[in-house]
Hints:
Blueprint: E1 7-11, E2 32-33, E3 36-37, H1 38-48, E4 53-58, H2 63-68, H3 73-81, H4 85-92, E5 101-105, H5 112-117, H6 120-123, E6 128-131, E7 135-138, H7 143-154, E8 157-163, E9 173-181, E10 184-192, E11 203-211, H8 213-219, H9 232-242, E12 247-251, E13 255-258, H10 262-275, H11 280-288, H12 295-301
Parallel strand pairs: 1-4, 1-6, 4-5, 8-12
Antiparallel strand pairs: 2-3, 6-11, 7-13, 8-11, 9-10, 10-12
Helix pairs in contact: 8-9
Amino acid sequence: MRARITTAIFPIAGLGTRFLPATKCIPKEILTVVDRPLIQYAMDEARAAGIRDFIFVTARGKSALEDYFDTNPNLEHQLRKTGKTDLLADLKETNVDSGHLVYVRQHQALGLGHAIWCARRIVGDKPFAVILPDDLVVAETPCLAQMMEVYEEFGGNVIATMEVAPEKTSSYGVLDVVETIGRVLRPTGIVEKPAPGTAPSNQAVIGRYLLTPAIMRHLNAKSVGAGGEIQLTDAIALELARKPGSVIGCRFDGVRYDCGSKAGMLKAIVAIALSRPDLRDEFREFLATDPATAPQHAALAAGE
Ligand code: UTP
């Protein structure tokens, strides 16, 4: 029997510089895709995969996230009084049972690997999930739940991967794949942000991981890697070298939006708005008018 994974780490201590000036005072993870913050999509995905304990690795300026997952008695009272039961139900998703959400500070943004290491004493000697909320995955079966199925079968470390164009590999962790069986990839190596033209494959890692305690032990070394940061990918590579076969890639079914970038965020908003029954007709009609050529947009673009 495999140890069940019920704890997830959400590393959210990054500076979010690609969204400045907004992120000067709003955490990136609170930025909304339609009407839900990025962190809510990540929490929903975690819960659907059986996660019960949540660890947020935060930093200065992220306190809005703490308030978001707290109850707001005044607001709830007001909604109840005015009969807005739908909105009350929506608010329920933003609550976490007391004692199941822990915040730990990363005092300096030293990299994703370091952020995860900051949670080591809370995770203890158990396998754990890692979710990067700025990767939003739209899928029929949530991405983390797909990965749990692979974990149940194979155990070890399971990382979500997707195919990217060769010229994009230098932005990702990339697997050196030896074998592909259905959605399961068996890598012999993994490299963070390979220099252009040197990527071992086009199977890129996205922000979903199921990891063993061995990864935390590798992170203890605090070795600095690509970009001068302590990289999670390097710890995974070490484990793969120490124990061949201990890392599995899961080619998930679904679409991933990189909401850490402006273009990715806009794509996610369009995709999710078009999937929402309350918005899609009006929004589709707006898109069909082709804003790029509609006279008022053309005039604005021309600076008139
Ligand atoms: P990113 O590479 O997207 O960095 O981190 P960032 O700082 O959030 O954004 P930019 O590049 O400045 O715009 C990927 C994930 O790792 C977390 C981030 O919060 C994000 O969820 N992270 C990164 C940390 O928690 N700590 C770090 O030191 C670095």
